[in-house]
Amino acid sequence: DIQLTQSPSSLSASVGDRVTITCRASQDIRYYLAWYQQKPGSAPKVLIYDAYTLQSGVPSRFSGSGSGTDFTLTISSLQPEDVATYFCQYYHSGPCSFGPGTKLEV
Amino acid sequence: QVKLVESGGGVVQPGRSLRLSCTGSGFDFIYYGMHWVRQSPGKGLEWVAAISRDGSERYYADSVKGRFNISRDTPEKTVYLQMNSLRADDTAMYYCAKESRGLRPPGQLDFFYYWGQGTLVNVSS
Predict the structure, then answer these.
(1) What's the Cα-to-Cα distance from B24 to each of A42, A93, B2, B15, B36, rounded to whole Å?
(2) pLDDT < 50 regions, chain A
């Protein structure tokens, strides 16, 4: 089974900062990784899929990169509405898995 | 528009059973794999189970394997999660999620764009 780790577990940044969150898989998952944003009381929202494809409607300040075992979610210029918890997910074959999350504060 | 509506949550004693339902609308149910994901209060997301579009493939997290069973009724556009031998650590909000891309080849799953609003399961004596 694929295990995902994320770092950092939490971070505080300022509006306008460039923010990077990393996700590491326990084995090669090629590009089968998605990133989700979750705000309190709401279901998660997909930001990136297939490691680097931006979901339609998601602001272009979000970007994803990586392949194999190491992946990155980048917010190029942090906005106040980006306060949320971010999760990575492996999804290509069962069982799927989520990373433990990164809580982002502004 | 696509809608997923979960039901069946509630308070249940340890060791007992509960069946969750998720009914979809606004999309061709037969073309999509369906998943259950849970989230304990204040915790992260935990993928629970998945079923392929034709129901022939089912996958489970190790934490629920042997206790939970996922199934689907395509004419009713409903996916179920039968939860047996419930434990306190099964307490969570349970979300139903629809795979984003339909007609996946056998053995291939997908990420989720659409989620339900969740149904809360509380395992407590």
Answers:
(1) 19, 23, 7, 29, 13
(2) none
